Amino acid sequence: MRLRLVIVAMLVLTSCASVGDVDDESNDAQPDLDDIALSSAVAIRATGCAPGSIRGAGAVIEGGFVLTAAHVVAGASSITVQPANSPPGSEPRTARLVALDPKSDLALLAIAGSALPGLPFASGAASGAGVAIVFRESKAVVHPFVITRPVQVRILDIYGQRTETRESYQVATEISRGDSGAVLIGPEGTAVGVLYARSDESDDRAWATTMATVPRLIDQARLVDPETGIDTGACAPD
């Protein structure tokens, strides 16, 4: 899926693999921060919009919902999640969409019977270094990042219909297809953003949505039956 940004960027499309071992690409992140990130991270697989499946990442936040990018799950007929710390061979869990915002490209999922710890999230502006969990082949990878600056991004919504202004962070990190929805964990162990795009011009530049709209999405999600969820709507165009 390609969207137009004032600062030219390309949406990170989904194509990651199953969960198993853990790798660590971070050099400076504290081990306890890595553990916090791994304990809440999930790989996401959505079917119904593309041949095969669309893959992305996410994390459980306070309230027990999985936070991810909306374009990963929009229009899906089936959504499953696999916790990053699952034992090898574990079956993925069924998830239901309970909130979606096409403007901010954020979504919340509910997992029946989930006992994963939920990350607190930052309410104010974030800065500095941290880690995100992405997925490479059979591994959950601890991936470092640095927030370089807050930005107001002019971008089409996930359906390519309306130009919106999205509260974002420019992030110094190299990401790949399948990393959309990965949650940025700041130095205090809080969720500070959600990856949604990478640069066409620089391999180590990406963008993440801030957490500004997350409280509103949680309020919406709490009104939804987690066993049935909400209609996933239309697929986000490629």
Automatic annotation (TrEMBL):
SUPFAM superfamilies: Trypsin-like serine proteases (SSF50494). Transmembrane segments: none annotated. Gene3D superfamilies: Trypsin-like serine proteases (2.40.10.10). One of its GO terms (molecular function) is serine-type endopeptidase activity. InterPro entries: Peptidase_S1_PA, Peptidase_S1_PA_chymotrypsin, Peptidase_S1C. One of its GO terms (biological process) is proteolysis. This is Unannotated protein.
